[in-house]
Specification:
single chain; alpha/beta; 6 helices; two-stranded antiparallel sheet; 3-stranded parallel β-sheet
Amino acid sequence: ANEQGAWDVGCLPARLPGYGHVSDDAARQAIGTAWGCTLPAQPGLDLRSALDAASAGRVKAMMVIGDHANFTNGKLGDGITALDTLEFLVVHDTFMSPAAERADVVLPRVTFAEKDGTFTNLERRVQRLKPALQSPAAEARPESWLICELARRMNATGFHYHSAEE
């Protein structure tokens, strides 16, 4: 759930929100104007490329939000060994996963049943998500909170959201 939503908002290294390609000058300019910044024309790294770059020493630190089965099932090569090569690893997860066991910092993450917001399924249906449970870990947070909090602490603008509705 929500992989489609991630694609829609540009969480792909070569795509912008709305599926514009980062090499498309007009699409990049439109998003850059809306965001108040200049965007690179070259795509970033996808997960496999980032892990390969970590293994080669070109990526020194990483933040992993939620563990991924492909770290250990071979679909991303030896993802766990790649994580071991990092100088600094932060994992935001619900459970002590293999990635979290290697992390320098583990930040507690709420489950889908504790989140407020929406997700977009592969049929492109936007579905409301309301908390059904209270997290037993008082310090557990959703990834949206974490991303906004990190951005604010890095003095980035445009991340002053305090709720899913905002």
